[in-house]
Amino acid sequence: MLIFGTDQDQVDTTKEFLSSKFDMKDTGEADVILGIKIIRGEHGITISQSHYIEKMLNKFNLKDCSPIGTPMDPTIKLMPNKGVPVNQLEYSRAIGSLMYAMLSTRPDIAFAVGKLSRYTHNPGLIHWQTINRVFKYLKGTMDYGLTYSGFTSVLEGYSDASWITNKEDHSSTSGWVFLLGGGAICWASKKQTCITVSTMESEFVALAACHLIGTNTAAGKEAEWLRNLIYEIPLWHKQISSISIRCDSQATLAKAYSKVYNGKSRHLGVRHSMIRDLITNGVISIVFVKTQHNLADHLTKGLNRDLVKSSAIGVGLKCKTKGATYMSMKFSRFKKLGLGFDMLMKDKDIG
């Protein structure tokens, strides 16, 4: 169990109460929890999975592989395997292992892992070659960690889409990322559940919420949920302003702020109404950003090495072995707030 807060007295009171009800042991400041290492520095906090990635490479006999600079070759177009599956069970295990790293601390592999996971039922040689490339990329970036300096303390988001990136069914891919305190706190790369006929429509679907299947969400609804969550955390005493979501499509921006939807697609009309409600209620605002500055771009397609590196830095991924010199941020919000971490674990779990 991980307990954190800005008031040490309240943290201590909570620990005493839980210890009186359950058989628990106080292990002090959290160092590693669920395979995620917490590193405290002068300029902020870094969370890393370098040890988990190292174990994963050993597990799949890739500890001696040659590092590579990108998680996915942008020239490769993956298609379903029509032949006999190649080691399907091991492929599923590899995808599951990569997903935990992707969901926890590595947004830079989200597109590659999301794309490869669609072929888990029948992987071919090309899929194995691509998944091995992701492992090689992780080998070269093993010491990357998400760094939170506390600057800025404003929640901001980026949204993007790639039109018809999936040739087998002509679907598009949505990507979004939200940052707080200098690092990414929420990100996703997902296949769109509806067919769009233009880049503008695919960008608009990425902004809105996909209620067509289950509880899939997109940038607008994710922003609303995060805003409500922040309201419940007593770190922001002033009224929270609308969340800026940056989009690199002028046409999508104009459509979002248009009061009337004059299209013929019903599914886009519903999304337009949702976006308009979020804007009118002050939950979000849509801001234009150039494509080269859109931090969600790497969540929708494979990019070259320079763009992958700049996107990783943009979302807060930095090499933790370089010490304080790798941090360019000069504001430590967490330290000023006295934010600390304590961990409680059951005796039987710590052996």
From TrEMBL:
Coiled coil: none annotated. It holds the Pfam family RVT_2. It comes from the Eukaryota. InterPro entries: RVT_2. Transmembrane segments: none annotated. Residues 1-72 form the Reverse transcriptase Ty1/copia-type domain. This is Reverse transcriptase Ty1/copia-type domain-containing protein. It comes from Centaurea solstitialis (yellow star-thistle).
